[in-house]
Amino acid sequence: MSHKFDFVEEELQLLERKGSYRRIRWVEEAPSPWVRINGDRVLLLCSNNYLGLINDPRLKEAAVRAIEEWGCGSGGSRSICGSLSLHRMLEERLARFHGSESALLFNSGYSANLSIIPSLMGDGEVIYSDELNHASIVDGCRLSRAAVQIYPHRDMRELESLLKGNQRKGKMIVTDGIFSMDGDIAPLTEIVELARKYSALTMVDDAHAIGVLGSKGSGSPEHFQLLHEIDVHVGTFGKALGCFGAYAAGRRSLIEFLINKGRVFLYTTALPPSVSATVLAGLDILEGEPERRERLWKNVDYLRRGLDRVGFDTMNSQAHIIPVLTREEGLTMEMDRRLLEKGVFVQGIRPPTVPEGKCRLRVTVMATHTQEDLDFALEKFEEVGRSLGIVHGSSTDCSRG
Ligand code: PLP
Q: Which residues are within 8 A (CB) of 113 and not within 5 positions of it... i.e. 6 or more apart?
């Protein structure tokens, strides 16, 4: 018998002993405010389907029509034969949406970051990266072989001192727009100023801000009125746009450069055509129905105020991702389990996704949650929070925002 797999078994046993073993949960129907898990109806409070578009009949119809017309796959990488005119239509639409010269599709946000960062930055150059940037940015930086300087979360003073102390020529500052686990927003105005002062490129990963921030929903640069100031603007389709895939928007030469230099872009099969059709339908809704965004922000405000009032620490979050700080891993996973038992599905988040001692429940709000849904969530959070000693004090009038 070969023992070559022993290390795998041992590692799994170790994770089990430490209480860190991850078991995925199977959601048994399309993500909407309520879903079925193990046959039980539970309130979904951890989906990135922020605007509720996943199940929208207009998106489904667009996907079905595209499959009938174009088939199921793209047939090749973008540089061989996977560049379909439907993809071009979406790229042109995305460029208009952002007021940029050009845009380029990628198969996911993760692969966009793995392709873009090493294309732009390499040996002898330096990337400045917020310590809480998404794992795909971290991996893109590693792959680039550039020097990486991590600055403390949103700390512009520290970022400036790092920039000042570095004489190298090629520099890029990269940040999440809305931070995926903390729900706060990058200080883009200051980042753009520093980038100008120290001649650095800027790259913003707006995976969580597209469809959510800005009056048109085009993300954090719009929110800060910096529409033409960000060099590389990355967005994804898997969150507010209710589909799958990603893109970068920027000047034409940047996009041409990424087409020529991006290894992940060059060597992977292009997105299925139905994705482009679905996203085009999603953009119509995003632009035509701003009330969805307004509803989302109302829900965010209501839920966060309710959680704060109960006594939870929501970590100064500013957006639809509301972390509920629980700190310790065991407690976090127990809270996650008890909430599910009571009908609320919200995922406990632990290392390596967040730092040791900063475990949390990552609550995400959707535009399609009703006030009754949010009241139900608040009631269950309070019950479980009290039973675990996370919140204390009077329970009266604590959940209504
Ligand atoms: N960038 C950020 C900031 C994210 O939060 C995520 C996913 O959650 C990604 C990139 C990856 O995007 P995708 O799921 O499309 O791979």
A: 134, 136, 137, 139, 140, 205, 234
Tell me if 185 sits within 8 A of 165, measured CB to CB: no
CATH value at residue 66: 3.40.640.10
| Statement to judge: residues 130 and 262 lie in one domain | yes
DSSP summary character for residue 152: P
Structure tokens at 158: 């520290």
Domain boundary among 288, 315, 340: 288
Give the largest CA-CA distance in the chain: 65
* Most informative mutation of 48, 134, 203 for ligand 1 (most atoms within 8 A of CB): 134
Number of H helices and E strands in the chain, helices first, is 14, 13
Q: What is the count of structural domains for the chain?
A: 2
Residue corresponding to tokens 């003073």 = 157
How many angstroms separate the alpha carbon of residue 400 from the centre of ligand 1? 33
Q: What is the mean pLDDT of residues 178-195?
A: 98
**pLDDT tens for each residue of 201-225:** 999 999 999 999 999 999 999 999 9
Tell me how far apart the alpha carbons of residues 110 and 344 are, in angstroms, rounded to a whole number: 28
Rounded to an integer, what distance in angstroms lies between the CA atom of residue 69 and that of residue 150?
47
Ligand 1 lining (C-beta closer than 6 Å): 108-110, 134, 136, 176, 180, 205, 207-208, 236, 238, 246
233 CA distance to ligand 1 middle (Å): 13
Side-by-side strand order, sheet with 359-364: 321-327, 359-364, 347-349
Q: How far is the CA of 391 from the centre of ligand 1 (A)?
A: 32
pTM attached to this predicted model:
0.95
Per-residue pLDDT tens over the stretch 133-164 = 999 999 999 999 999 999 999 999 999 999 99
Residue nearest to atom 13 of ligand 1 (CA): 109
The residue whose CB lies within 8 Å of the most ligand 1 atoms, and thus the one to mutate among 136, 178, 279, is 136
Please give the Cα distance from 298 to 365 (Å, whole number). 10
Residue 389 pLDDT exceeds 70: yes
The verdict on 205 and 114 lying in the same domain is yes
Ligand 1: centre distance to CA 288 (Å): 25
Instruction: With H, G, I as helix, E, B as strand and everything else as coil, classify residue 259.
Output: helix
Q: Please count the residues of the chain.
A: 401
